[in-house]
Known about the structure:
Strand content: 15-25%
Number of strands: 11
Strand order of the largest sheet: 5-4-6-7
Number of domains: 3
Mean pLDDT: 74
Number of helices: 9
Radius of gyration: 23 Å
Shape: globular
Amino acid sequence: MRPDGLSPRDLSTTTCLSGQPCIDYPILMVLTKDPGLGDTTVGSADPCVTSVVDHGSYVTITVLSTHASTWSEVAATSDRVAGVDRFGTAIATSQLYLVPGQATAAVLARDDGYADALTGGSLASAKGGPLLLSDLEALPAAVAAELTRALVPGSSVYLLGGTSALSPSLEQSVTALGFTPVRIAGPDRYATAVAVAEALGNPSTVLLASGVDFPDALAAGAAAAHTGAAVLLTAGTAQPAATARYLADPPGITLYAIGGPAAPLLLETLGRHVDALAGKGPTWSESQEGPSNSDPAAVGLTSSESTH
């Protein structure tokens, strides 16, 4: 019996068009549609290709081996979004989704620390604008150019963090470009995350992740942007005062703990049921589907290792 519960196929004499044996283990690829892909029946003659489904903007292809003919033909449609540095990568991401003069807001976060940017993704998504990075003191020329390209004149630019994160001189630079700076800040990363949640209108869904390191909150940010949720931070397995105050006040919040450090903390200190989505260790959940059960049309990959 295969892991998916289906009866195994007899592939003892079956080979791919490449001449190599098929591997009876399904691999599902979700690929952004590309003009170079051509007819979506490509690969149907290969016995290792079990299905090719055209969804309009993307194609799902199930193969039984990485050397199936379809794999090599469509792998080139995967896109890398990158710049020469972190500023450029954020700009490239903005240009991937936003046409000139489309957005009415943008979010700026410091480039030398991850904490503010972790919670800013959901705000950028809610405002329909890009999340860009900046130096502490000076707005990089490329970032200024991207703001001018992407934003309607007079748009709001949200600055995440206090003046020790993004300086008053940078705020003045945003004003000089013809935009309205709006600072969202608290005395620390945890309070700034709460301030972002308040700027979002206090969403009914909150994702909690450790703010001591970035991987859990980075993963939470994408889910929060998709579902309109807020991301709040814990101090690893300790609960910051700002996070505790926020969660103790608004009623009717649906909580999800993202990652191992946040989950047991919430169960111990909040005195209420929480859903925990953790890669390792115990998971407590009434709804195993998490904050969203929709299948994505595309998947983004990023490094889990810090360069600092």
